[in-house]
Write a structure and sequence with these properties.
121 residues, alpha+beta, two-stranded antiparallel ribbon, two-stranded antiparallel sheet
Length: 121
């Protein structure tokens, strides 16, 4: 898979990649704040899968519904050098990575894991 073609769903999962999660922390706050929320979200997805007998969960990005942007708006040298490898983000939720703990708290901890972008099988 070409990671540069993938889109980050809530900054936790990659489009078209089933049963895969990653943790990218904040560039403007403690890295572990976001990582903790990511883990809570993944746990919710796994529990939903188990409760409903699903074997896979795949985020599906629709490029006709929004623009694609760089994943990190951060000019550190290591980010700039890796930009061509990094996944992208969408211009709107749930594909937008906001770098904002309050928005992520709502999106990851308190929102449903059953939405139109997550395909369960």
């Amino acid at each position: 898979m070409d990671t540069a073609q993938a889109k980050a769903y809530k900054g936790v999962m990659l489009s078209e990649v089933p049963n895969f999660a990653l943790s990218v922390g904040y560039t403007n706050a403690s890295w572990t704040l976001k990582c903790d929320l990511n883990c809570q979200f993944v746990t919710k997805v796994l529990n939903h899968m188990e409760q409903n007998g699903y074997q896979s969960c795949t985020p599906v990005f629709d490029p006709t519904k929004m623009k694609v942007e760089e994943l990190l708006d951060f000019d550190a040298g290591y980010v700039l050098r890796a930009r061509h490898f990094l996944p992208k983000q969408g211009s709107e939720a749930p594909w937008k990575v906001y770098q904002n703990y309050i928005k992520d708290l709502r999106a990851l901890k308190y929102s449903s894991v059953a939405d139109t972008y997550l395909h369960y099988q």
